[in-house]
Amino acid sequence: MIIVMKAGATEAEISQMSDHIRELGFTPDVSKGTQQTVIGILEDVTPIRELPWEAMPGVEKVIHIRRPYKLTSREYHPEDSHIQVRNLTFGAKKVVLGAGPCAVEDREQIIQTARAVKQYGASLLRGGAFKPRTSPRSFQGLGEKGLLMLAEAGQEVGLATITEVMSPDQVELVAKYADILQIGARNMQNFSLLQATGASGKTVLLKRGLSATIEEWLLAAEYILMKGNRNVILCERGIRTFETQTRNTLDLSSVAVVKRLSHLPVVVDPSHGTGRRELVLAMSKAAIAVGADGLLIEVHPVPEKALVDGDQSLNFAEFEELSNAVKHVAAAIGREL
Ligand code: PEP
Ligand code: MN
């Protein structure tokens, strides 16, 4: 249940309402927007549902959220959430361009990539140190050494960083090095990982699972938000379908759907979404046009030699072209890069 306070409600009215909810044995969840404050009660409200809430001072209306996800829902938080990470804001007018290799391979590779992507407009550096590989014999990432290289490259070049965390016991370590914790598609329903990243308080980028419905994806986000961490960014990275021309089917309609259902920012990863370098530019433009708040692009100094995901990685010149194209699309829809 959500109590929407009037635009002009006073601090005293807001705290009086919170006290009242506590006296009834429930927990008020106060969220202050730029216009209005809303107070959520996330427990089962059956015993207090019929109380005369709307007659209380400062109350505009009471909403019962019908969706199974509550904190994630736009009914709960009607305005777009803006998520701040260093000097970046996700969900605002400016689109965030994130780029970097699938995996950190060595110091030279990550630093060279960081410089190039920064030069061409990226503001976020990606690079996996713990890699979820289908085959246990494939390169698994450099682990902590990779985290350190990513952090140093980000620091040296002046880019925020994002990297994947694969298990709850890695959260503390990864949080020490990276600005954003990525939960990979294969882990979208690893509920203990969701809770551990939620408890860390770090910004989390939650990828959509390979076969997850949008509702399952939003419920996964709810696990993180319920730990008190509101800094969650969703990432569409394609789903598995019967189509074989692309590695995954990049479901861009999900961006439009999620924008209606949720207040959280949504970014798109067209690299994993297509699996094919020659399709990344077109799908990046489409992603921005449909309303994505950012892009995550795999870039490698020499994609042909990449240890992971070379087929879908752009070289520096291709990334420059992408950045320029996306800038025009963003401008056409009233946004910027
Ligand atoms: C990645 O970002 O390199 C990755 C493994 O992504 P996903 O979880 O979307 O497959
Ligand atoms: Mn990859």
E-strand count? 14
Query: What gross morphology would you assign?
Result: elongated
Strand order within the widest beta sheet: 7-8-9-10-11-12-13-14
Compounds present? phosphoenolpyruvate, manganese (II) ion
User: How widely separated are the two ends?
Assistant: 38 Å
Radius of gyration: 21 Å
Number of helices: 10
Mean pLDDT score = 96
Approximate helicity band: 25-40%
Give the percentage of residues in beta strands. Answer: 15-25%
Low-pLDDT segments, ≥5 res: none
Alpha-beta content class: alpha/beta
For the biggest sheet, the summary is: 8 strands, parallel, barrel
H/E element sequence: EHEEEEEEHEHEHEHEHEHEHHEH
Structure characteristics:
single chain, binds manganese (II) ion, 34% helix, elongated, 10 helices, alpha/beta, 337 residues, binds phosphoenolpyruvate, four-stranded antiparallel beta sheet
Describe the overall structure.
The structure is a single chain. The chain is of the alpha/beta class. It is 34% helix and 18% strand. It contains ten helices and 14 strands. Strand 11, helix 6 and strand 12 form a beta-alpha-beta unit. Helix 2 packs parallel to helix 3, helix 5 crosses helix 6 and helix 9 runs parallel beside helix 10. The longest helix is centred in the last third of the chain and has 17 residues. The model has no long low-confidence stretch (mean pLDDT 96). The structure holds phosphoenolpyruvate and manganese (II) ion (MN). Manganese (II) ion binds next to loops.
